[in-house]
Amino acid sequence: MKTGSIDFGERPVLLAPMEDVTDTSFRLMCKRFGADAVYTEFVSSDALVRHVNKTAQKLTVSEEERPVAIQIYGKDAEAMAEAARICEAARPDLLDINFGCPVKKVAGKGAGAGMLRNIPLMLQITREVVKAVRIPVTVKTRLGWDADSCIIVDLAEQLQDCGIAALTVHGRTRAQMYSGEADWTLIGEVKNNPRMHIPVIGNGDVTTAEGCKECFDRYGVDGVMIGRGSLGRPWIFREIKHFLAVGELLPPEPFAWYLDVLKEQVIQSVARLDERRGILHIRRHLAATPLFKGIPDFKPTRVAMLRAETVEQLFEIFDNIRFEDKRQEVEVMLRG
Prior knowledge:
The protein is an alpha/beta fold and 336 residues long. It has 14 helices and 10 strands.
């Protein structure tokens, strides 16, 4: 897949932009595990134009994470164009426009997925952003506002005509938020539309290596974007890339290996913020990780883990989980 002059390779797997998730440390970790491209948290164009320092900090990208995209959102064409120029100065490889965020504080104000109710403005913003920068501009959006307005097939052509270099489609409407199942059928229709000549990337509910390969094989997309499937599981990119390459599942690592990855996430989060905020930030990864699923009577441990306030407390819980896992391995060996 090529976007502008950037070659992502065959069947690329990308890390989706997620607010309060895809900070620099998590992007680097996913990159290390095989993500072919990573996206920043989404950035408010209004806040950038007003020079809000906290927002400007989101523009920091490193050489090690390339290719990297900065994603912006907003509802004013002039502000979006100015924000695009500010982002370009931060030297990302791509600039992505968020027309897909469904949360009320964004979509309810007409930005993000809210643009699906104002297509003329969406297209105006897209044209102005494309004209404002020299780097490739891409768009991420949804199928439509609701089930009665799944306009993505026609909309994709219109966005392409605005000059974007690639399109990512999340297989839900705004009304669905993140509920129900993603509809990849419509994503496939966008990709297989003979009038589309830019790369089409699919997004939604990809949580396994087999599922990712099926999306490539069945729907013909140029790339697959992983969002919530990476929470507490950055190694998913390693698993997917292995399966795509050889057609076999990657043998699992020892349980302790995965715990060490989560520990590393904690350490990096605390180093980037501070102990209190770093632990608060990492809790969504700990709550979402599939690593602890199936462990008997784990609920009290999960509660303690999500209430831990210091690294010492959290790592003591991790070490107890590791000890119990090792003890169970020994018992299995003795019984065998």
